[in-house]
Amino acid sequence: MSICLRYVRDREQVMETVNDGFLKIFRDLNRFDDTQHQDVEGSFRGWLKRIMVHTAIDHFRAAEKHAFQQSLDDVAVSYPDAGTSPLDELSFEELLRLIYLLPPAYRAVFNLYALDGFTHEEIAEQLRISVGTSKSNLFKARVYLKDLLKKTKHHAYAGNVG
């Protein structure tokens, strides 16, 4: 459920996503091969997580069809600071609460890239967007999170407020 909450805001949709994910898991359990799913988290747990992420992405895509409708020409070009980020000081729970406040398109890309380890190419394929849009949405998500920290005067941003 925690995986699905990262992609879907509405509690009812989260439950639907979790149910759909477990249906896929139970339906395909007999085809599970632990030799093909070796990872740090354990083979079955990794397989389960991957199915839930993909199911959540499917639900996100269905619910947020127009979330990515922005021309790259409308995006201002800016570059991130080379130093440490205030986000480095956040606890995981605090970060999840802030991520939940992101607009859906930014939240999906941020989750896939920063939390689930997808590349921009994989994100573009999963969400059916361009690689440039994925990179742009990740950058915007980071800026949005930074602004949230400034506005709330979060301790992670102490000393960085100018």
UniProtKB/TrEMBL annotation:
Domain RNA polymerase sigma factor 70 region 4 type residue range list: 93-143
Could you list this entry's UniProt keywords, alphabetically sorted.
DNA-directed RNA polymerase, Sigma factor, Transcription, Transcription regulation
Kindly state one GO CC term assigned in the UniProt record: DNA-directed RNA polymerase complex
Q: Which InterPro entries does this one have?
A: RNA_pol_sigma-70-like, RNA_pol_sigma-70_dom, RNA_pol_sigma70_r2, RNA_pol_sigma70_r4_t2, RNA_pol_sigma_r2, RNA_pol_sigma_r3/r4-like, WH-like_DNA-bd_sf
Q: Which residues form the RNA polymerase sigma-70 region domain?
A: 2-64
Give the Pfam families listed for this entry: Sigma70_r2, Sigma70_r4_2
Q: Which family does it belong to?
A: Belongs to the sigma-70 factor family. ECF subfamily.
What is the name of the protein in this document?
A: DNA-directed RNA polymerase sigma-70 factor
Q: Which organism is it from?
A: Hymenobacter cavernae
